[in-house]
Amino acid sequence: MAVGASSAKAGEETDTITDRAYASQLRRRLGRADLRAVPEARRELRELLRHWGKPGRSEIAELLTSELVTNALVHTDEDAVLTAVVSSHGLRVEVRDFVARRPRPCAPDTGDGTHGRGLVLVESLADAWGVRPHGVGKSVWFELGAEAA
Fold first, then answer.
1. 64 touches 122 (CB < 8 A)
2. What per-residue confidence (pLDDT) applies to 126?
3. What is the predicted pLDDT for the residue at 59?
4. What distance lies between CA 50 and its chain's CA centroid?
């Protein structure tokens, strides 16, 4: 599936950003339950994306990244690893944790404040997203094309 196509179903693995010759990367280890890492990760991603994409794309990327990072830190009791790769085709962000339990989008409860909206946002705003199992844990990822409006 090409970046810019409709979203992949959760659990489907794609690797559509293949032009590694023009790739910039961010890799950051996130400490267990360290929610200070969320704004730090956004700031680092903002720097990586400073000259990337059409207006508004980097803001969407920051929002979705903070959702994945927050989910990994709040819903697991383990460290996590954030990886973001920018290429001429788009952006792929992946947050790997070390808990096998798969996340699933759920309809947020109106009485639950802001909880329960993270994966719904990812599903709504990403060009593609999914969950990839690892030997220990999983990666939740999303992709955005630079040129989508």
1. yes
2. 96
3. 93
4. 17
